[in-house]
Write a structure and sequence with these properties.
3 domains; alpha+beta; 23 strands; Rossmann fold; Tumour Suppressor Smad4
Length: 546
């Protein structure tokens, strides 16, 4: 039996084509012949699907992001081809695949797509076009569609809304008339989201109560509000705290009608949408999506970080490390997300997303200390759960406890460095880790790993760090929400650690550095390249030092 594979060669990091032989081999072993098709123009894709005989195929596989899936699904439904759909989530945000908990690792997703477990999915219809995940409209959509095309390939849909904050002073609300069986609205808005899934632009809690097969659309109307309130509102979207905001109207419906006066941009799954008026409705359980289990409910499992091959306990921590922490007394109290966001906003003036603000932060003493370790055989990767405002915000977005990563040349962490905010002492960018940074909540702790590295590999990393120190750096604060870097030396913590490993040829998983999360270093270590050294609970370390 044949399997049609439609892949977008420019989706995500553009590396999917490197896995084609592996995929073809795995399916052939199961008696299925892959028939690949490389997307180019929409018209050519539509023409190819129009000529397909659905009875010849067992399933259809789509490799790409939401936009690619949208194009394929529109053609499949247009020509009444009803086949199970398998997804390789190789786009930037992969919001639709995210709902079904589909992994990005090729080996794991292939194993799922070889099986026959399914989840039924609703599809939205706007006039004569379908959408799988989200339909959106408004002035911020217009800003996003005028953004540079290369940037558009790197940033997800809702990320554009955040990117559009720089254009907010120019924003003018539009009058929208909305009618549905649930509620009616006639007034000024800034933008509007009609959700089938739960996430958009990589943000997982846009519609936290949505279900992809409940026969309902979740509608969010972002009303006209002061600019300073909108900036804060967009950031609360990260944690799903916008639903009860007075500037947001949320309701569920099977259908709705939307009209406006003048030109207002629309968007379907990241693709340009139809013109007004808009007639929207939901088509229940129209698609059969291949999933890990039958009837995936869309919930994101809360996973604890797994520690592989624990070989020994880390018995010592440097005396200077403990003493430095003892100077700073009590930890910061538990904070609400909005408090962390306010703290981030207060700090924004110190940051630069487009130019270097940090230069020469590492002293010659650091480089001398690091050079003394070059022959010890290891580089050290440190994951930390600290309680900082940025860390707690990242933890909320990623659902991971460990939200910061660092690199050290020695096991006592005397040479530990990363990209951080400089703790208001140094400029944000490449800095020594301020040790008080690690103790900002009661249960703050760090996990220490090591990876084998030769003298030459460590030297190569150190030389590149010296180059960054001389050229300048900035902390990639935009990278907290968008997978994008404007210049080489503008990075966030895990992006920096990954790039340093890549400099030495020590990377053991393939991912765009802008998308690397701190926990990826452990969770994507399929070949067990890391050796776990131990966990240090900062409070216990302090008490042990007294």
């Amino acid at each position: 039996m044949k399997v049609k594979l439609i892949y977008n060669p420019i989706s995500g990091d553009r590396t999917f084509k490197n896995h084609l032989d592996y995929i073809i081999d795995k399916f052939q072993q199961k008696g299925m012949q892959i028939e690949p098709y490389r997307t180019n123009k929409k018209e050519e894709l539509d023409n190819m699907i129009s000529q397909m005989d659905g009875t010849e195929y067992k399933k259809i596989l789509i490799a790409g992001g939401d936009g690619t899936i949208n194009q394929v699904v529109n053609s499949l439904l247009r020509y009444n081809i009803d086949l199970p759909i398998g997804i390789f989530p190789v786009g930037t945000a992969n919001d639709y695949a995210q709902y079904f908990n589909l992994p990005q690792g090729i080996e794991e997703i292939v194993e799922i797509l070889l099986r026959d477990n399914y989840t039924l999915s609703d599809v939205g219809l706007v006039n004569d076009r379908y959408f799988i995940n989200v339909a959106s409209l408004g002035v911020l959509i217009d800003i996003s569609q005028k953004t540079n095309t290369e940037l558009k390939n790197s940033i997800g849909v809702l990320a554009y809304y955040l990117n559009g904050i720089t254009e907010l002073p120019k924003v003018k609300p539009v009058n929208i008339k909305v009618n549905s069986s649930t509620m009616n609205y006639d007034g000024e808005i800034l933008f509007m989201l009609i959700m089938n899934g739960r996430s958009a632009g990589g943000f997982h809690k846009i519609a936290p109560t949505a279900s992809i097969n409940d026969g309902l659309l979740d509608v969010f109307i972002f009303k006209k509000c002061p600019i300073y309130e909108l900036a804060a509102l967009l950031l609360t979207v990260i944690n799903g705290e916008h639903i009860n905001n007075s500037n947001v109207i949320h309701f569920k419906t099977e259908d709705l009608f939307i009209d406006t006066v003048g030109e207002v941009s629309t968007d379907l799954d990241g693709e340009g949408g139809p013109v007004f008026p808009l007639n929207l409705r939901i088509i229940p359980q129209k698609l059969k999506i291949i999933t890990r289990y039958n009837n995936e409910d869309g919930s994101v499992p809360q996973k604890n970080l797994e520690l592989h091959h624990v070989r020994k306990a880390f018995q010592q921590i440097s005396k200077g490390f403990v003493n430095e922490i003892q100077k700073h007394g009590e930890t910061k109290s538990e904070r609400k997300v909005i408090d962390d966001l306010r703290e981030l906003f207060r700090n924004l003036s110190r940051h630069s997303t487009f130019s270097y603000v940090n230069k020469g932060s590492l002293s010659e003493e650091f480089f001398r200390d690091a050079e003394k370790t070059l022959d010890n055989g290891y580089l050290y990767i440190v994951l930390s759960s600290t309680g900082s405002a940025a860390g707690e915000t990242i933890a909320k977005v990623t659902n991971k406890n460990y939200s910061h990563s660092s690199l050290s040349f020695d096991e006592e962490l005397k040479t530990i460095i990363s990209y951080n905010g400089g703790e208001k002492i140094y400029s944000p960018g490449l800095n020594l880790e301020m040790l008080e940074f690690f103790y900002q909540k009661e249960d703050a702790n760090i996990l220490i790993y090591r990876i084998e590295a030769t003298y030459e590999q460590k030297k190569q990393v150190l030389e590149h760090i010296r180059k960054i120190n001389q050229e300048g750096s900035s902390y990639n604060v935009l990278g907290l929400v968008l997978p994008y870097s404007h210049k080489d030396n503008i990075m966030f913590c895990s992006q920096f650690v990954y790039n340093m490993l890549r400099q030495a040829g020590l990377t053991y998983f393939d991912k765009r550095s802008e998308s690397v999360k701190p926990t990826d270093f452990v969770e994507l270590d399929y070949e067990r390249r890391l050796e776990f050294c131990g966990k240090v609970v900062i409070k216990d370390a302090i008490l042990g030092g007294k």
